[in-house]
Every structure is written in C-alpha cells, then in structure tokens.
From TrEMBL:
GO terms for molecular function: peptidase activity. GO terms for biological process: proteolysis. It comes from the Bacteria. This is ATP-dependent zinc protease. Keywords: Hydrolase, Protease. Residues 14-146 form the Retropepsin-like aspartic endopeptidase domain. It comes from Microbacterium sufflavum. The lineage of its organism: Bacteria, Bacillati, Actinomycetota, Actinomycetes, Micrococcales.
C-alpha cells in the first residue's frame, strides 16, 4: 500500500526521468522528467474546459499518457485549485490552471500542485517540479527509472521511447 507523503524527512532516490502513475486519474503509466529547475509540476492536458459545479470552479480535460499516441486517453474532471502565471524555460509567461493530484513516484505517493499545459512539443508528457520533490526526494541526475519501468507492452505504446 502506498502512503501519501507530507513529510520532508524521507530520502527517496529518484532519477532524472521516471515512470509515474496518477492513480486518481486512472493513469497507470506516464513518463515524467524530474526537473529541479521547475517550481511546479506540469501535465500535458488538452481539450481543457472550465465549468462550475455547485458554485465552485472545475476543469475538464483530456490526458494522453503516451507520447505521439492517442491510445488510452483519459477524460478528467477535478476542482481548480488555483490559477498561476508560469514562466516557461524560454521566458514566456502564461496563466495556467492548477489542480491537485496524487502522483505515485518511486513507490511513494505525494499530493502535488500540477499546472495544465500543452506539452505536445516536449519530450515528456509530465514534468515533476521542486514542490513535489520537497516531500523527501533526492534526485540523481545520472540515473533513470529508479522506480522501475512500465511493463513492456506499455512502453511499446509509448513508441519505444522507454
């Protein structure tokens, strides 16, 4: 059983890229870049539509867990946690919706703020930033997939980019 970590007292080792899960979304495998240069985590989302539910702001969006593939797309609805101006690595500022998601990273689960953005042109569908990593992760930039790899059939769906 996985525990949601709110502690900063663990030293779980992670590589610079990992297969992660988003259990609340039903996404078992998505390849993520671990990025200590980014404050907030980011998830590739498309068909993003805001709506109101019982007086609260919500968002509906789709997630494609596999790079260059529409297979296994998931439709997600969740509350909007925040809106934030985020500056990209190219220096461009953009307002993004922020949701809170459970991320399973190297056999632990953490609650993280995640911005929704179009990452079609990026090498990874997800980026894990410092706010999620502060829950006790140590990054070894020379290593990858310390939490294990997705099953071979899942990696094939990801166009062999495992």
């Amino acid at each position: 059983m996985y525990q949601v970590s709110r502690s900063t007292h663990s030293n779980t080792l992670t590589g610079w890229r990992e297969w992660v899960s988003l259990p609340d979304l039903g996404v078992d495998w998505i390849k993520a870049k671990i990025d200590t240069g980014a404050r907030t985590s980011s998830l590739h989302a498309f068909d993003v539509h805001e709506f109101e539910r019982e007086g609260e702001a919500w968002v509906r969006f789709r997630v494609n867990p596999w790079q260059d593939s529409q297979d296994d797309a998931v439709v997600v609805e969740c509350p909007v946690h925040d809106r934030r101006a985020v500056r990209s690595s190219s220096g461009h500022a953009q307002e993004r919706l922020v949701v809170q998601l459970i991320i399973r990273l190297v056999d632990r689960e953490v609650l993280a703020e995640v911005t929704l953005s179009n990452r079609d042109e990026m090498g990874f569908r997800m980026l894990i930033g410092r706010e999620a990593l502060r829950h006790g992760y140590v990054v070894d930039p020379a290593r990858s997939f310390l939490g294990g790899r997705a099953p071979r059939e899942a990696r094939r769906r990801n166009r062999g980019r495992a």
